[in-house]
Amino acid sequence: MGDTLNTFTFKPIGFIKGAYPDKFGVPRQSGLVKQTVSELSILPEWQPEFALQGLEEYSHVWVTWVFHLNTNTKYHPKIHPPRLKGETIGVFATRSPHRPNPLGLSLATVEKIEGGKIYLGGLDLVDGTPILDIKPYLPQFESLPSARGGWATKDENQVAAIEVSFTDEARTILNHWMERLDNSKLEETIVDILKQDPRPVVYRGFEESGNSPYRSDHAFRLYDGDIHFRFTAPTKAEVFAIKFVSEK
Ligand SMILES: C[S@@+](CC[C@H](N)C(=O)[O-])C[C@H]1O[C@@H](n2cnc3c(N)ncnc32)[C@H](O)[C@@H]1O
What we know:
alpha+beta; Elongation Factor Tu (Ef-tu), domain 3; four-stranded mixed sheet; 12 strands; 13% helix; binds S-adenosylmethionine
């Protein structure tokens, strides 16, 4: 007998149009960077004019989606979350992208619903990600302030408070960019992304060691710009350039 009973097929309801063209720089959880707004056009076959009716009464939705950019091919039941500094933990005790079924779950604010499109705030997914479902967040059942948060909430696993600065040159470019995109929240967005320290773990702790191969400059892409930054001390990040995709 085949395993058709245990294999399921899903079709996207749409694809996200968002702030993050690449995986690098995407916040590690929804709600960490609140200023971005992503657009989700519900595909015509799901009849958005009917399917979205009533959703405007909710402030938040759960979004289910596919980690379609995963490149891993092998299943690992234990994961090395960056914040656990080398320790491992069971995959089901994490929100890692690498799991038996590559399904993501994010909580988003409902900013606006218009013409078959829903605008979602604070997401943590790459532009173009396939969305499988949205469901209203039910505060009467799902808001549990006394819930235990596991390893991720322990003091020793927190990211240290990071101070973010811009060189004069980067700030001038930023001001023009904010005007061009008509987005007054760009600076806050960049600061909140850097406060989460998006660097791969191997680069941390080498900030001041002059000629270390690990002391390097990094860049993440936001909308059409590459934000170039470096850490000048363990808790100090400096944006020193912003370059646009169109300039390349
Ligand atoms: C730790 S996961 C958490 C995702 C979701 N909130 C969850 O709990 O299922 C967030 C990371 O997934 C990665 N990511 C986002 N969109 C992705 C995609 N379409 N494919 C693969 N990885 C993605 C980004 O690196 C992001 O920082």
